[in-house]
Amino acid sequence: MTARRCLGGLLFLVVVWFGSFAAAGAHTDLLQGSPGPAQRAGGTVDFIDLVFFESVRNAQVTLEDPNGDAVAGDTVQPDGQIIRFEMPALTETGRYIVRYTMESADGDNTEAAYFFSYHPDGTQPARLGDPDLPDNTSNIVSIVSAVIFLLCLIGLAIIFLSRLERRRAAAVTDDRSVP
Question: What pTM value is reported for the model?
Protein backbone atom coordinates (compact mmCIF):
# COMPACT_ATOMS: atom_id res chain seq x y z
CA MET A 1 0.00 0.00 0.00
CA THR A 2 1.41 3.34 -1.01
CA ALA A 3 1.41 6.56 0.95
CA ARG A 4 -1.21 7.93 -1.44
CA ARG A 5 -3.56 5.05 -0.59
CA CYS A 6 -2.99 5.63 3.12
CA LEU A 7 -3.85 9.28 2.76
CA GLY A 8 -6.87 8.37 0.62
CA GLY A 9 -8.04 5.95 3.31
CA LEU A 10 -7.56 8.61 5.97
CA LEU A 11 -9.57 11.12 3.94
CA PHE A 12 -12.33 8.53 3.45
CA LEU A 13 -12.51 7.88 7.20
CA VAL A 14 -12.70 11.60 7.96
CA VAL A 15 -15.57 12.05 5.47
CA VAL A 16 -17.43 9.02 6.87
CA TRP A 17 -16.91 10.22 10.45
CA PHE A 18 -18.25 13.71 9.79
CA GLY A 19 -21.05 12.28 7.66
CA SER A 20 -22.15 10.07 10.53
CA PHE A 21 -22.50 13.11 12.79
CA ALA A 22 -24.63 14.89 10.21
CA ALA A 23 -26.90 11.84 9.86
CA ALA A 24 -27.09 11.27 13.60
CA GLY A 25 -27.87 14.91 14.30
CA ALA A 26 -30.55 15.26 11.64
CA HIS A 27 -33.41 14.15 13.89
CA THR A 28 -34.21 11.59 16.51
CA ASP A 29 -36.22 8.40 16.24
CA LEU A 30 -38.50 6.50 18.57
CA LEU A 31 -36.49 4.10 20.71
CA GLN A 32 -39.33 2.45 22.63
CA GLY A 33 -43.01 2.80 23.37
CA SER A 34 -45.26 1.43 26.09
CA PRO A 35 -47.55 -0.02 24.91
CA GLY A 36 -45.06 -0.62 22.13
CA PRO A 37 -45.39 -0.99 18.37
CA ALA A 38 -47.32 -4.16 17.43
CA GLN A 39 -47.60 -5.14 21.12
CA ARG A 40 -50.66 -6.93 22.51
CA ALA A 41 -51.37 -4.94 25.66
CA GLY A 42 -53.84 -5.75 28.39
CA GLY A 43 -54.77 -5.03 31.96
CA THR A 44 -55.17 -1.35 32.76
CA VAL A 45 -53.89 0.70 29.83
CA ASP A 46 -54.33 4.36 30.73
CA PHE A 47 -51.08 5.83 29.40
CA ILE A 48 -48.66 5.81 26.50
CA ASP A 49 -44.96 6.42 27.10
CA LEU A 50 -42.65 7.21 24.18
CA VAL A 51 -38.87 7.17 24.58
CA PHE A 52 -36.72 8.85 21.92
CA PHE A 53 -32.98 8.54 21.24
CA GLU A 54 -32.56 12.24 22.08
CA SER A 55 -34.68 14.91 23.71
CA VAL A 56 -37.58 16.30 21.72
CA ARG A 57 -39.91 19.21 22.32
CA ASN A 58 -43.48 20.23 21.56
CA ALA A 59 -44.54 16.60 21.22
CA GLN A 60 -48.22 15.87 20.72
CA VAL A 61 -49.62 12.35 21.04
CA THR A 62 -53.05 11.21 19.92
CA LEU A 63 -54.70 7.81 20.08
CA GLU A 64 -57.34 6.34 17.76
CA ASP A 65 -59.60 3.51 18.90
CA PRO A 66 -60.49 0.49 16.71
CA ASN A 67 -63.34 2.50 15.14
CA GLY A 68 -60.99 5.33 14.10
CA ASP A 69 -62.33 7.74 16.73
CA ALA A 70 -60.01 9.85 18.87
CA VAL A 71 -59.50 8.67 22.45
CA ALA A 72 -59.71 11.53 24.96
CA GLY A 73 -56.38 12.23 26.62
CA ASP A 74 -53.55 14.71 27.10
CA THR A 75 -49.85 14.84 26.37
CA VAL A 76 -48.75 15.57 29.94
CA GLN A 77 -44.97 15.47 29.24
CA PRO A 78 -44.40 17.15 25.82
CA ASP A 79 -40.65 17.86 26.16
CA GLY A 80 -37.68 15.63 26.93
CA GLN A 81 -36.45 12.20 26.02
CA ILE A 82 -39.59 10.56 27.49
CA ILE A 83 -43.00 11.77 26.31
CA ARG A 84 -46.11 10.84 28.28
CA PHE A 85 -49.76 10.68 27.20
CA GLU A 86 -52.51 9.92 29.73
CA MET A 87 -56.09 8.90 29.03
CA PRO A 88 -58.98 6.99 30.60
CA ALA A 89 -58.34 3.22 30.80
CA LEU A 90 -59.04 1.37 27.55
CA THR A 91 -62.04 -0.93 27.53
CA GLU A 92 -62.65 -1.76 23.87
CA THR A 93 -60.75 -4.75 22.46
CA GLY A 94 -59.00 -4.13 19.16
CA ARG A 95 -56.28 -2.27 17.31
CA TYR A 96 -55.30 1.24 18.48
CA ILE A 97 -53.18 3.71 16.50
CA VAL A 98 -50.72 5.98 18.30
CA ARG A 99 -49.88 9.12 16.31
CA TYR A 100 -47.24 11.58 17.43
CA THR A 101 -45.58 14.74 16.20
CA MET A 102 -42.47 16.22 17.74
CA GLU A 103 -39.64 18.63 17.11
CA SER A 104 -36.04 17.38 17.31
CA ALA A 105 -33.25 19.43 18.87
CA ASP A 106 -32.21 20.63 15.40
CA GLY A 107 -35.74 21.89 14.65
CA ASP A 108 -36.74 18.97 12.41
CA ASN A 109 -40.48 18.23 12.72
CA THR A 110 -41.48 14.58 12.60
CA GLU A 111 -44.86 12.90 12.30
CA ALA A 112 -45.12 9.16 12.82
CA ALA A 113 -47.50 6.46 13.99
CA TYR A 114 -47.63 2.87 15.13
CA PHE A 115 -50.31 0.48 16.34
CA PHE A 116 -50.82 -1.83 19.29
CA SER A 117 -53.66 -4.20 20.12
CA TYR A 118 -55.66 -4.12 23.32
CA HIS A 119 -57.12 -7.26 24.85
CA PRO A 120 -57.94 -7.44 28.58
CA ASP A 121 -55.92 -10.68 28.90
CA GLY A 122 -52.81 -9.17 27.25
CA THR A 123 -49.59 -8.17 28.98
CA GLN A 124 -49.80 -5.11 31.25
CA PRO A 125 -47.54 -2.37 29.81
CA ALA A 126 -44.97 -0.79 32.14
CA ARG A 127 -44.11 2.86 32.64
CA LEU A 128 -40.82 3.74 30.98
CA GLY A 129 -38.06 5.57 32.81
CA ASP A 130 -37.99 8.80 34.72
CA PRO A 131 -38.70 11.88 32.58
CA ASP A 132 -36.58 14.05 34.89
CA LEU A 133 -33.31 12.25 34.12
CA PRO A 134 -30.75 14.22 32.09
CA ASP A 135 -30.18 13.24 28.46
CA ASN A 136 -26.67 11.73 28.22
CA THR A 137 -27.23 9.65 25.08
CA SER A 138 -25.72 12.14 22.66
CA ASN A 139 -22.66 12.61 24.91
CA ILE A 140 -21.98 8.86 24.98
CA VAL A 141 -22.35 8.56 21.20
CA SER A 142 -19.96 11.48 20.69
CA ILE A 143 -17.34 10.01 23.02
CA VAL A 144 -17.49 6.53 21.47
CA SER A 145 -17.31 8.01 17.95
CA ALA A 146 -14.32 10.15 18.88
CA VAL A 147 -12.45 7.18 20.41
CA ILE A 148 -13.09 5.00 17.34
CA PHE A 149 -12.02 7.81 15.04
CA LEU A 150 -8.84 8.41 17.06
CA LEU A 151 -7.94 4.71 16.99
CA CYS A 152 -8.42 4.65 13.20
CA LEU A 153 -6.20 7.71 12.82
CA ILE A 154 -3.47 6.15 14.95
CA GLY A 155 -3.65 2.92 12.94
CA LEU A 156 -3.39 4.79 9.64
CA ALA A 157 -0.50 6.88 10.95
CA ILE A 158 1.39 3.72 11.98
CA ILE A 159 0.82 2.15 8.55
CA PHE A 160 1.88 5.35 6.80
CA LEU A 161 5.03 5.76 8.89
CA SER A 162 6.06 2.12 8.49
CA ARG A 163 5.69 2.35 4.69
CA LEU A 164 7.64 5.60 4.68
CA GLU A 165 10.42 4.03 6.75
CA ARG A 166 10.64 1.06 4.34
CA ARG A 167 10.96 3.44 1.39
CA ARG A 168 13.72 5.38 3.14
CA ALA A 169 15.56 2.17 3.97
CA ALA A 170 15.22 0.99 0.37
CA ALA A 171 16.48 4.34 -0.92
CA VAL A 172 19.53 4.18 1.38
CA THR A 173 20.27 0.64 0.18
CA ASP A 174 19.95 1.70 -3.46
CA ASP A 175 22.30 4.68 -2.87
CA ARG A 176 25.00 2.38 -1.40
CA SER A 177 24.86 -0.05 -4.32
CA VAL A 178 25.48 2.67 -6.96
CA PRO A 179 29.26 3.22 -7.52
Answer: 0.60
Q: Using CA atoms, how far apart are residues 32 and 44, in angstroms rounded to an integer?
A: 19
Distance CA 144, CA 146 (A): 5
Please provide the DSSP assignment of the chain as one string: --HHHHHHHHHHHHHHHHHHHHHHHH---EEEEESPTT-EE-S---EEEEEEEEEEEEEEEEEE-TTSPBPP-EEEE-SEEEEEEE-SPP-S-EEEEEEEEEEETTS-EEEEEEEEEE-TTSBPP---S-TTS---HHHHHHHHHHHHHHHHHHHHHHHHHHHHHHHHHHHHHHHHH--
Q: How far apart are CA 96 and CA 105, in angstroms?
A: 29
Q: Which tens digit of pLDDT belongs to each residue from 50-66?
A: 999 888 999 999 999 99
CB neighbour burial string for 69-96, b if at least 16 within 10 angstroms, e if fewer: eebebebebbebbbbbbebeebeeeeeb
Evaluate whether 73 touches 63 at the Cβ level (below 8 Å). Answer: yes
Could you tell me the sign of the dihedral formed by the alpha carbons of 12, 14, 19, 24, in that order?
Answer: positive
What is the model's pLDDT at position 23? 45
